Every structure is written in C-alpha cells, then in structure tokens.
Amino acid sequence: MIVRDFHDIQKNDTDRVVSDAKWSSTRLLLANDGMGFSFHITVLEAGSEHTFEYKNHFESVYCMKGSGSITDLKTGQTHRIKPGTMYALDQHDRHTLKADEELFMACCFNPPVTGTEVHRADGSYAPAEELA
Amino acid sequence: MIVRDFHDIQKNDTDRVVSDAKWSSTRLLLANDGMGFSFHITVLEAGSEHTFEYKNHFESVYCMKGSGSITDLKTGQTHRIKPGTMYALDQHDRHTLKADEELFMACCFNPPVTGTEVHRADGSYAPAEELA
C-alpha cells in the first residue's frame, strides 16, 4: 500500500511537482508505482489559459474546486467546468482550458506519466519510449 | 471528448450509481469509455466501516473532503485520511476503511470497472472476464 499526501509532497518532494508560472501538477502516482495509470493534482491559476493535446495519452480530469471552461478545438464546442464536472480526452482531443477562478483538478493519465515529461510545443507529452 | 457531471449523474443516470446503506459510488468513467481505467466518486457515510480486497484490480483513492483512516490488514498499520491524502492499493491490499466524518473520495481502477460488479463476500470485485 502506498500512502502519500498532496500537501507533504508540495513541501518536501519537489521532484514530483512540475510547474510553470500559471500551472502546477503534483504527481501522487507515476509510472514506476506500477498502478498502470498516473494520478496528479493540478492547480491552474485564475485567469490562465492552456492549450494541450495529449497525442500519446488518455487523460481524465475532475474539477474539485474553482470554475472555468474547456473548448474542444476540433468542434469549437465549449463546456463549463465547475466542482463535479469531469472531462475525458478519449480522442486525444486538442483543447483549451480556461480558469476563471483557480481550478483544482484530479487527473488520471493512461499510459502513466513517468515524471520526466514536459509539454512540447504542440501541447503533447512524449510517449514513454522516447524518454528512456 | 466526454464531459459528465457528478451531480447530474446522481440525479439522472442512476445506472452509474452503485450504493448500499452506508456507501455510494458514482461512476463517471467505466470500461466501455475506452480510457483503460475507470473513475468513480465514492461517498462513505460518517461512522461507517468497510473492508475490501480488490484481488483483481489496482485502485487509487484521493480524499477530497472528510476524515477517517485506512488499516492495512496484512501489516496492521493504520494511516490517517484527510483532504489531500491518497492511498494506492498496489499489492491488492486487503484493508479496512473507516469514515470518522463523511468521506468524499476520487477513485481510479485498473483494469476499469465495467459497471456490473458487486462486492463479493471476500470484499473483491470479479475480474471482467467473469462478467460477460
């Protein structure tokens, strides 16, 4: 059994925290935990906007706190995000996420993120085999 | 892109809600969503206690609200659960979960739950191939 705490990791295990100026992701589970998925708590700054396209991963995102929206860049459709909303990028959907208020999100990735990925210019993470 | 809402599903899509008197699980993603994991919001009643052993699944659980504890029944070790705590049953660990206050948990299962599982006498879910 693995037991970890979001607040402890943010303070003491910064290898598991990836961030830029307007975004941070705390990785509670990574590929080497052997669960077959990774699990992240991601916080997006109020007023920020992010475009991602996880070409090599499926991702689900559950909103725990805050408000914003997600736009599917293929269809142009925008969905409101509030506590209780989940979106799942089952088509590796290119999307823009906007945080009207600070957003606290619980995210699952399959395949699991290894922890060394960075967002590339196209908004994707590299597939695991390119990170070895 | 799949977009679903916890509160809408609780009201309008009760096929996705599994519950007993002291426990309910709202399945936002199931096996047929094709993500390779399932994602559930599970609410455990204050004062309740639950013993599970997912022999055929890995599960991670993140506490969003409430307080309680988890006991690893192999080692006897008990861990406190509060908002920000995550536990992952990477050894299919038999465990007892106690809710001191009502617990709101975000849960991921691999392999994904199909939606027809019930807890068996031993606290497990059947493997997917027995549910066809």
Percent of residues in β-strands of chain A: over 45%
CATH class of one domain in chain A reads Mainly Beta
Annotation, overall tally of beta strands of chain A:
11
Biggest β-sheet of chain A: count, sense, barrel? 6 strands, antiparallel
* Most residues in contact, chain pair and counts: A-B, 36 and 36 residues
SSE topology sketch:
The structure is a homodimer of 132-residue chains.
Chain A: E1 2-5, H1 6-12, E2 17-20, E3 23-29, E4 38-44, E5 49-52, E6 58-65, E7 68-72, E8 78-81, E9 85-88, E10 95-99, E11 103-110
Antiparallel strand pairs in A: 2-3, 3-4, 4-11, 5-10, 6-9, 6-11, 7-8, 7-10
Question: How does this structure look, described?
Answer:
2 copies of one chain form a homodimer. Chain A is mainly beta. Chain A has a domain at 44-102: Sandwich (Jelly Rolls), CATH 2.60.120. Chain A is 5% helix and 45% strand. Chain A has one helix at 6-12, and strands at residues 2-5, 17-20, 23-29, 38-44, 49-52, 58-65, 68-72, 78-81, 85-88, 95-99, 103-110. In chain A, the strands form 2 sheets. A 6-stranded antiparallel β-sheet of chain A has the order 2-3-4-11-6-9, covered by helices on one side. In chain A, strands 5-10-7-8 form a 4-stranded antiparallel β-sheet, with no helix packed on it. In chain A, a hairpin with a 2-residue loop joins strand 2 and strand 3 (23-29). The longest helix of chain A is centred in the N-terminal third of the chain and has 7 residues, at 6-12. Chain A is globular, with a radius of gyration of 14 Å. Chain A starts with a strand and ends in a 22-residue tail after the last strand. The interface between A and B is large, with 36 and 36 residues.
